[in-house]
Amino acid sequence: MARAQALIAYAPIPLRLGLGLILLVHGAQKIFVLGPGQVAGYFANLGLEPSGLLAWVAIAVEFGGGVCLLLGLLTRLVGLLFAIEMAVAIWKYHAPQGFYVSQNSYGYEFAMLLIAGCLALILAGPGRFAVDRPVGIEK
């Protein structure tokens, strides 16, 4: 039992690293492949205004937040911000396409899973090997 309790501190690490990588890659895509202008145009088509500002917010949350999660820095804050971003994505884009992700649609099941992961990090914190601890953000 004591060993299982000791391992609990390591449980958030795979989730934090997995979410961090997903955020980082999607943020990099918005910066280097699509470009902020195309992201802003996409947001405008969804009715998200001011689209230019929101494009940069999404880029910061995804790219910057991805780096932060990989380091274990500001883990709970990044989890909250990305959960909000995914909730907006479900509301404005995914929900009308249904639950399932398939070849023909981008339903909300994956976005919902990302929100669940974010909520787990908000509740559990970054786990061991996180910058949050030595800088005093987490105890």
Describe this structure in words.
The protein is mainly α and 139 residues long. It has one domain (14-124). It has six helices and no strands. It is globular, with a radius of gyration of 16 Å. The model has no long low-confidence stretch (mean pLDDT 95).
Any key phrases for this structure?
139 residues; mainly alpha; globular
Task: Describe the secondary-structure layout.
Blueprint: H1 2-7, H2 12-34, H3 36-45, H4 51-71, H5 75-94, H6 109-124
Report low-confidence residues grouped into runs of 5 or more: none
Q: What number of domains?
A: 1
* Inertia-based shape: globular
Helix content: 55-70%
Oligomer: single chain
Structural class: mainly alpha
Tally of helical segments: 6
- Rg from Cα: 16 Å
Q: How many extended strands?
A: 0
Percentage of β-strand residues: under 5%
Largest sheet: none
Instruction: Give the mean pLDDT.
Output: 95
Straight-line distance between termini: 23 Å
Order of helices and strands: HHHHHH
What is this entry, summarized?
The protein is built from six helices and no strands.
